[in-house]
Design brief:
Layout (H helix, E strand, L loop, with lengths): L14 E7 L3 E10 L2 E11 L9 H15 L5 E6 L4 E9 L3 H16 L6 E7 L19 E10 H13 L3 E7 L3 H9 L1 H6 L1 E7 L4 E7 L2 E8 L3 H12 L3 H10 L2 H28 L6 E5 L6 H11 L3 E3 L6 E3 L3 H4 L2 H4 L4 H10 L1
Parallel strand pairs: 1-4, 3-14, 4-8, 9-12, 12-13
Antiparallel strand pairs: 1-2, 2-3, 5-7, 6-7, 9-10, 10-11
Helix pairs in contact: 1-3, 4-12, 6-7, 6-8, 8-9
């Protein structure tokens, strides 16, 4: 699904450069078409810049320039994925009109459709096609006042303007800005087409500040939610409980010795309960339960973290690799690390699929 807010290019490009602007780590990929498939040519993970108030254009431009140099893609166009702190994703029922008309309606009457005044935002929509094998739909309204189920993305105009200016100063052209929320679903469709199309699965992406959960029902995104708990809170909790520095706690979170594991399990309880509540809500709304939960993000690399969350969710959980459908066209030093870092590239890979 594509929710790019704007596009300054014709579709069917051969290459894309995507930069996922995370709260702690920026993740970037250079992807290209390879016959009927795709290739991963390069990737980069770089510490994200810290801004006290809003986005500072000059440091962001330096950051984008540095990331693009690491990718060595020689591309000027760049697609930027922005996190849930900067973007919004909602379901809405809207009149059966064109996508352009829907965007105009949201621009002038967002409160009517999203129960929130978002007059300072730019909108894009993804019209959700009715599926014969999809989830049950309520009866269509009588008469000519027909509604369509739509996925609405929104981001503040100022953020878009600042990112475009930052990219320009970096010698790049921000031709798309994409909500990170849709990345996991796009990547999952490519990496796991069978469960994507035929099962009810939850995709959980654990970020530094927040965790997102998306539930897919036979290929349709039927629930999306943000939980205000990320890996940063876990690191902080381990640091405080065991008297470690944040750097030591970050390392211990990965190696997970027994004393750290017991602390982490208790700290993860609120996240597990929130995720379980989302799954329960969805199960009660539909006639089929979530069968599997797939985790991505840096914290998902720890088997102990996944196991602790599985205890709360009571559904089989696993970490997944969003690059399995691509040919690896990487230099040796990156090829040796891709298995370890792949879960962190989920949003960037998914945003790349929206950009092609």
């Amino acid at each position: 699904m594509s929710l790019p807010f704007f596009s300054s290019f014709e579709k069917k490009r051969d290459q894309v450069m995507v930069i996922d602007l995370g709260a702690k780590v920026t993740k970037a990929v250079h992807l290209s078409r390879k016959g009927e498939g795709f290739a991963l040519n390069s990737y980069a993970l770089v510490d994200a810049p810290v801004f006290e108030k809003g986005l500072n254009i000059a440091p962001m431009a330096d950051h984008l320039r540095a990331v693009a140099k690491l990718l060595n893609s020689r591309l000027k166009p760049v697609s930027l994925a922005v996190g849930v702190e900067s973007s919004l994703l909602r379901h809405a029922d809207m009149p059966a009109v064109t996508a352009h008309d829907m965007r105009q309606m949201l621009k002038f009457s967002s409160k009517n459709y999203l129960q929130q005044d978002l007059s300072d935002c730019v909108f894009d929509v993804h019209i959700m096609a009715a599926r014969a094998d999809g989830p049950p739909k309520p009866d269509a309204p009588k008469g000519g006042n027909q509604k369509m189920r739509v996925l609405v993305g929104a981001v503040k105009k100022q953020i878009i303007a600042d990112l475009q200016e930052s990219a320009e100063q970096a010698g790049l052209a921000a031709d798309q800005i994409i909500p990170s929320f849709i990345g996991p679903a796009n990547a999952f469709e490519m990496a796991h087409p069978e469960p994507f199309a035929k099962e009810v699965v939850a995709l959980v992406d654990v970020g530094h500040k927040n965790t997102t959960i998306c539930i897919l029902y036979n290929g349709e995104l039927t629930l999306s939610r943000v939980v205000a708990f990320g890996s940063g809170k876990l690191t902080q909790g381990i640091s405080e409980a065991l008297g470690m520095s944040l750097e030591e706690a970050e390392g211990a979170k990965v190696t997970m010795p027994p004393e750290v594991e017991s602390v982490a399990q208790s700290l993860l309880l609120p996240l597990g309960r929130e995720l379980r509540a989302s799954v329960d809500f969805h199960d009660h709304q539909r006639d089929r339960a979530v069968s599997q939960v797939f985790f991505s993000g840096g914290a998902s690399r720890s088997p102990q973290i996944i196991q602790a969350l599985q205890v709360e969710l009571m559904v089989p959980c696993q970490t997944w690799n969003p690059t399995t459908f691509m040919t690896m066209n990487l230099p040796p030093q990156l090829l040796g690390e891709i298995e370890a870092v792949a879960p962190q590239l989920t949003v960037a890979v998914g945003a790349g699929m929206a950009a092609f």
